[in-house]
């Protein structure tokens, strides 16, 4: 028997049986039950430094840099599978195999895959342990990088295992980098495998991941549990698991609002969540930057909570001008950086962080100067940092109920067509906006960058079931509200519209507070808007631009609703709806027809 199975720190029979079964299959050298302690963090970070997986970042307390294998830098959507019994239940937007096929295929891959390595058992909880039903998970992994990342990103360790007791339900999440070591074989700094599978069994609520060490593929509480498995749970239980930031906005009069925002990966969630308003008297506090669980409150309103414990932010573009609160969060240390540059002074640097250093080591470990051809940091390089270090974290963050939502923003990265902000007519129109959301692809996923694709509710890679059923669930959530006026108002934003020279029309970042102000004033019935074919839109004079040095033509262009551009969008939406097929709710076809007739197209 491998060490670690004797005298385990739990009497949860189901968990013990699963751990024993995985150990027998993967044959690790030893099993370690992760306790989440500082001592564990110290031991593992020291080991990883000794192995060359991590390099200390001396300029920041207790911080480290990881350089991944250059082929393991982002989520792998092509290799992500939803394994429902019936392929229809995975729908036309997910990769599918039968559960039997995937179990057989991956069992073969897992056989002996932890040879020569340590198998870590990480008890974790997504969301508060004080929740009515705590959302437990256990990740088994052979990556110490995953363990220390989970220290930051999730509530984990002994207190979670104790809270699970002897019989709590949990989501088993198995991860192996797929790089067994033969006796005497020396390890590489970033073990992984060319063969990758990120598989989900929504019916049995299980996750199996193989071959990648990158965050979104390996920190299984995040995308895999809190979004893909979570969305399937939400469908069955009447709630929503969404790819959303959550923020609290306080107006100069002291009125408090809560806003969530669904933007695709690398399209501005972390930045908006930590926004520093440029307009006087307004205050933003952070609740979450990537995932929100939306449930009904006792007051009949929709409440949002953040199941995560850390921030996993895109590094490039982050600095004191764009996102000062993210900088303040990482300055406090205890931060893991992945695929950024390290300066001679021993600090991190990436594109967009002020003046480049004269000399640095780039994300691949090569010498880098401002004259070097390539980027110093991978475009999807990340900082992983405790959310508790965020100086503007809301005091409601720990509340298991979350916060009542006033407005939902959908948004994407579009150079054309989509105005800075549009308000939906009603809930169903808002669902239509979300269902037809489009965005240019980014470096957050492996594949071509800058291609416009439909990314419904920013959930294309994360819906754990049929997208048509998912839209129906959204519409149904609106219907199950006891009072439509209690539902959040829906808005569609685009910070990324460009001028003819390719520059952004809208200054973005802290200036987005001006858009939030218009949103709130719409809720209060104070701000003006005009009704256009696509919804309610502000005129330039409706946006507060006081103190903003901006060309009025650019403002007008950023707000413009161009019927010709919208007509060109129609066939793309039609194609998208046709692809979703017969499970697409008829209400959404009706919304498209109504939009067509408002645009004068039949
Ligand atoms: P997330 O992945 O959705 O959390 O997106 P981030 O907030 O990390 O932002 C992704 C990238 O977009 C970063 O490089 C940001 O600097 C950039 N970004 C974020 N907000 C804005 C904005 O309002 N305007 C512009 N132009 N870029 C932005
Ligand atoms: P992001 O999170 O949305 O902050 O980019 C990671 C991801 O979605 O891959
Ligand atoms: Mn994300
Ligand atoms: Mn983010």
UniProtKB/TrEMBL annotation:
Pfam families on file: PEPCK_GTP, PEPCK_N
Main subcellular location of this protein, as a coarse class: cytoplasm
Molecular functions (GO terms): phosphoenolpyruvate carboxykinase (GTP) activity
Catalytic activity: oxaloacetate + GTP = phosphoenolpyruvate + GDP + CO2
UniProt keyword Protease, yes or no: no
Signal peptide limits: none
EC primary class: lyase
Ranges where the Phosphoenolpyruvate carboxykinase GTP-utilising N-terminal domain occurs: 18-235
Cofactor binding note: Binds 1 Mn(2+) ion per subunit.
Catalytic residues of the enzyme: 267
Binding residue positions for Mn(2+): 223, 243, 290
Positions that bind substrate: 75, 214-216, 265, 380-382
SUPFAM superfamilies, per database record: PEP carboxykinase N-terminal domain, PEP carboxykinase-like
Cofactor(s) of this protein: Mn(2+)
Residues of the Phosphoenolpyruvate carboxykinase C-terminal P-loop domain: 239-598
Subcellular location, record wording: Cytoplasm
Pathway of action: Carbohydrate biosynthesis; gluconeogenesis
EC number annotated for this UniProt entry: 4.1.1.32
Summary of the function given for this chain in its UniProt record: Catalyzes the conversion of oxaloacetate (OAA) to phosphoenolpyruvate (PEP), the rate-limiting step in the metabolic pathway that produces glucose from lactate and other precursors derived from the citric acid cycle.
Assembly and oligomerization: Monomer.
Family: Belongs to the phosphoenolpyruvate carboxykinase [GTP] family.
Name of protein: Phosphoenolpyruvate carboxykinase [GTP]
Organism of provenance: Salininema proteolyticum
């Amino acid at each position: 028997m491998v060490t670690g199975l004797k005298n385990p720190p739990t009497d949860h029979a189901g968990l013990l049986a699963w751990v024993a079964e995985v150990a027998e299959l993967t044959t690790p050298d030893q099993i370690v039950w992760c306790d989440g302690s500082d001592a564990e963090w110290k031991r593992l970070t020291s080991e990883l430094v000794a192995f060359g997986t991590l390099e200390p970042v001396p300029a920041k307390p207790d911080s480290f840099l990881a350089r991944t294998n250059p082929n393991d830098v982002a989520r792998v959507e092509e290799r992500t599978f939803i394994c429902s019994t019936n392929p229809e239940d995975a729908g036309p937007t997910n990769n599918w195999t039968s559960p039997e096929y995937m179990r057989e295929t991956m069992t073969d891959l897992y056989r002996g895959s932890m040879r020569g390595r340590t198998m870590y058992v990480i008890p974790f909880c997504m969301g508060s342990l004080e929740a009515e039903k705590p959302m437990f998970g256990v990740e088994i992994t052979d990556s110490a990088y995953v363990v220390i990342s989970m220290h930051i990103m999730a509530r984990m360790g002994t207190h979670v295992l104790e809270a699970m007791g002897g019989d709590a339900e949990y989501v088993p999440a198995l991860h192996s980098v797929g790089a067994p070591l033969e006796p005497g074989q020396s390890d590489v700094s970033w073990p992984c495998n060319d063969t990758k599978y990120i598989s989900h069994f929504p019916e049995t609520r299980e996750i199996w991941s193989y071959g990648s060490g990158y965050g979104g593929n390996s920190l299984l509480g995040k995308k895999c549990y809190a979004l893909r498995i979570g969305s399937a749970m939400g469908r069955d239980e009447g709630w929503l698991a969404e790819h959303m930031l959550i923020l609290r906005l306080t107006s100069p009069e002291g009125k408090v609002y809560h806003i969530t925002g669904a933007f695709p990966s690398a399209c501005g969630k972390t930045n908006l969540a930590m926004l520093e308003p440029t307009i006087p008297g307004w205050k933003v506090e952070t609740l979450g930057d990537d995932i929100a669980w939306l449930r009904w409150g006792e007051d009949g309103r929709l409440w949002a909570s953040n199941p995560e414990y850390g921030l996993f932010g895109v590094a490039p573009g982050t600095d004191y001008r764009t996102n000062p609160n993210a900088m303040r969060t990482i300055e406090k240390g205890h931060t893991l950086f992945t695929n950024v540059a390290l300066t001679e002074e021993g600090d991190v640097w990436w594109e967009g962080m002020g003046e480049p250093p004269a000399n640095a080591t780039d994300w691949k470990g090569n010498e880098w100067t401002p004259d070097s051809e390539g980027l110093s940091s991978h475009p999807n390089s990340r900082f992983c940092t405790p959310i508790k270090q965020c100086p503007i974290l809301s005091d409601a963050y720990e509340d298991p109920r979350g916060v009542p939502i006033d407005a939902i923003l959908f948004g994407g990265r579009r150079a054309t067509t989509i105005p800075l902000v549009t308000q939906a007519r009603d809930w169903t129109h808002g669902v239509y906006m979300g269902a037809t959301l489009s965005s240019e692809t980014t470096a957050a996923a492996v594949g071509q960058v800058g291609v416009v694709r439909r990314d419904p509710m920013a959930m294309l890679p994360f819906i754990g079931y049929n997208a048509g059923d998912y839209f129906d669930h959204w519409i149904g959530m609106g219907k199950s509200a006891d009072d439509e006026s209690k539902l959040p108002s829906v808005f569609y934003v685009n910070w990324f519209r460009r001028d003819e020279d390719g520059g952004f029309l809208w200054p973005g970042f802290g200036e987005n507070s001006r858009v939030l102000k218009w949103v709130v004033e719409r809720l209060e019935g104070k701000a003006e808007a005009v009704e256009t074919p696509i919804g309610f839109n502000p005129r330039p004079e409706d946006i507060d631009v006081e103190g903003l040095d901006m060309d009025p033509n650019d403002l007008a262009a950023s707000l413009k609703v161009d019927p010709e551009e919208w007509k060109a969008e129609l066939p793309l939406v039609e194609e998208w709806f046709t692809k979703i097929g017969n499970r697409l709710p008829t209400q959404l076809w009706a919304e498209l027809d109504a939009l067509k007739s408002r645009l004068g197209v039949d």
